[in-house]
Inverse folding.
């Protein structure tokens, strides 16, 4: 499973999980550039934090730019699968990012990165299942 992980708290050490290849960027702009350059087919998932630097993407006025970025991924780039993993997930934000197209939504307070990746793998094996964490 190939995952593009966009998070300003990306851990420098390599995250090792069998069957998972992570490409990490600390800004939305770099992530968008990567997808435009290589095509959305280059990844199986995009994993997005809701609060991170826009890096030139968007208008710079969004308090939680990841929320708008989820919509951009689904409606303009046609990314197949998007997951959100953030400290600021509330029931309201969960509903908003799901309306914007997020397939899975996780709170960093409740689920580890390994847990998120496991759920993403599970979701790929059985579409429609395991979409709540």
């Amino acid at each position: 499973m190939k995952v593009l992980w966009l998070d300003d708290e990306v851990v420098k050490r390599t995250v090792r999980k069998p069957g998972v290849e992570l490409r990490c960027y600390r800004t939305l702009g770099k992530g968008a550039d990567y997808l435009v350059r290589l095509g959305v087919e280059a990844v199986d998932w995009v994993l997005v934090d809701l609060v991170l630097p826009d890096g030139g993407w968007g208008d710079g006025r969004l308090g939680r730019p990841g929320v708008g970025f989820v919509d951009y991924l689904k409606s303009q780039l046609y990314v197949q699968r998007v997951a959100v993993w953030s400290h600021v997930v509330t029931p309201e934000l969960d509903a908003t990012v799901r309306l914007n197209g997020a397939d899975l939504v996780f709170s960093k307070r409740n689920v580890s990165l390994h847990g998120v990746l496991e759920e993403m793998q599970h979701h790929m094996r059985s579409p429609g299942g395991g979409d709540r964490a």
